[in-house]
């Protein structure tokens, strides 16, 4: 994997732009252009091994904190809905109520965002967008075909596996069915917004913002190709594992690799979020419109 974005004719190495005239010593320098490798080489956070380890610690705390926040959010929502004594049964449902799903997601996302905020404030410049590559450009619309391609890649990956797994398609669609099965009307629209807008934003900020950048710094000494490749693969494995879906792990990890490559080459999260949104959107459509699943090869 190259450290540089695929830009024909760009012979110059991306460098840190000069600090604007009049800027004091406490003003952080502008975010360097180029790939994530270029940015780390130019001194973008995390700026060293110690900071990178702290970013990973913040990531672990954010993930665990998200689990706690999810439990608290669900408990409060259950109290409001008058279903607190049914929580154990609700957790086992294949199609839980919409308020249960949304509360869980908001809790998890709170932990993800908290990890990003800690990394930027305590071991970064304090500028969240710059430290984690939270920038968008018109070219990020290329993320739409990338997300579609991700669904095709996952379908191809599971072709030799599906025939050996009993009731494969029902089990494979279970996570999406869990999200949408009991939702209708406004509730379904809320699930769509959470899945297509919320999940891509917070998950990319966490997995390709905090974790990939920290791993990129730690694996940097391994070389220009080995280091980035290791960072992408490890972050993708964590991405797949974090979803806690054993059958879907390989597909999620593969998509995580694709997203990691995009984030490394662009040095930003914009295209990732668009790709992630289109990938999730197709998964939702495949549940309610069977023809979509057939079209992308999921069934």
**What's the total helix number?**
12
Distance between the termini: 32 Å
Low-confidence stretches: 4-25
Structural class: mainly alpha
What's the alpha carbon Rg, rounded to whole Å? Answer: 20 Å
What is the average per-residue confidence, as pLDDT, rounded to a whole number?
Answer: 87
H-E string:
HHHHHHHHHHHH
Biggest beta-sheet profile: none
Helix proportion range: 55-70%
Count of domains: 1
For the secondary structure, the number of strands is 0
Beta-strand fraction estimate: under 5%
The 3D shape can be described as globular
Quick summary:
The protein has 299 residues and is mostly helical. It has helices at 36-41, 49-81, 87-91, 98-123, 128-132, 143-162, 168-180, 186-219, 226-242, 249-266, 270-288, 290-295.
What does this structure look like?
By secondary structure, the protein is mainly alpha-helical. The protein is built from twelve helices and no strands. The protein has one domain. Helix 2 runs antiparallel to helix 8, helix 4 runs parallel beside helix 8 and helix 6 packs antiparallel against helix 10. It is globular and about 50 Å long. About 7% of the residues have low confidence.
């Amino acid at each position: 994997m190259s450290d540089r974005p695929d830009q024909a004719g760009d012979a110059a190495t991306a460098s840190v732009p000069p600090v604007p005239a009049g800027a004091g010593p406490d003003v952080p320098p502008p975010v360097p252009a180029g790939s994530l490798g270029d940015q780390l080489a130019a001194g973008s956070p995390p700026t060293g091994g110690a900071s990178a380890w702290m970013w990973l610690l913040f990531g672990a705390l954010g993930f665990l904190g998200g689990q706690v926040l999810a439990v608290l959010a669900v408990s409060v929502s259950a109290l409001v809905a008058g279903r607190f004594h049914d929580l154990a049964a609700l957790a086992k449902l294949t199609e839980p109520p919409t308020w249960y799903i949304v509360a869980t997601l908001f809790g998890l996302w709170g932990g993800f965002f908290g990890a990003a905020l800690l990394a930027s404030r305590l071991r970064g410049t304090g500028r969240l967008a710059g430290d984690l590559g939270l920038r968008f450009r018109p070219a990020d619309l290329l993320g739409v075909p990338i997300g579609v391609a991700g669904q095709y890649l996952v379908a191809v990956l599971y072709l030799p596996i599906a025939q050996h797994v009993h009731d494969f398609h029902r089990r494979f669609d279970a996570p999406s069915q869990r999200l949408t099965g009991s939702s209708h009307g406004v509730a379904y629209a809320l699930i769509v917004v959470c899945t297509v807008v919320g999940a891509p934003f917070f998950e990319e900020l966490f997995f390709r913002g905090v974790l990939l950048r920290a791993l990129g710094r730690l694996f940097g000494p391994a070389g220009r190709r080995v280091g980035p490749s290791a960072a992408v693969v490890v972050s993708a494995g964590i991405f797949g594992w974090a979803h806690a879906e054993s059958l879907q792990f390989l597909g999620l990890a593969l998509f995580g690799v694709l997203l990691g490559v995009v984030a490394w080459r662009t040095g930003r999260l914009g295209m990732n979020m668009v790709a992630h949104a289109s990938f999730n959107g197709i998964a939702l459509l495949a549940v309610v419109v069977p023809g979509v699943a057939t079209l992308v090869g999921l069934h």
